[in-house]
Specification:
By secondary structure, the protein is mostly helical. It has one domain. The model has no long low-confidence stretch (mean pLDDT 88).
């Protein structure tokens, strides 16, 4: 048991000495880090340029959608205006057309009423004509 504890102790000392030894940092390592930083900066600039290009394209597409939406608003507005004008014209035309027709119809009713009055007066004098009017349901 004592032997295993001593062997573990020696093993730990060997590991700790290996970990504790400083790693030498050479000039080549420093140059490699500088080159890596320069590459990272270049990549960052390229990514920024690509991002700006994508953002510009997105803004162009958004502007086109806005232009199309504005065009549709105008087109629908014009169509609705034309349809409203057409309905107003139809209503106006109906009223102007119906006015003379209604007046003519009233005149015809009046004339019919006068003719019926004359026919009834004549039926009072003529018995045969009176019989015809009774059969027709006009007396």
């Amino acid at each position: 048991m004592r032997a295993t504890i001593v062997s573990i102790y020696i093993f730990l000392l060997a590991v700790l000495q290996g970990v504790a030894q400083p790693v030498e940092f050479t000039l080549e390592d420093r140059d490699r880090i500088i080159r890596t930083e320069v590459r990272l900066e270049e990549l960052q600039k390229q990514m920024e340029l690509q991002f700006n290009d994508v953002q510009r394209q997105f803004n162009d597409v958004q502007r086109q959608f806005d232009d199309n939406r504005t065009f549709l608003y105008w087109a629908f507005g014009i169509l609705i205006g034309i349809m409203g004008s057409m309905f107003a014209f139809i209503i106006w035309d109906r009223r102007t057309t119906m006015g003379p027709l209604l007046r003519a119809m009233e005149e015809l009713k009046h004339e019919n009423h006068l003719m019926l009055y004359v026919a009834r007066k004549y039926a009072l004098k003529e018995p045969e004509y009176r019989e015809i009017m009774k059969n027709a349901g006009l007396l």
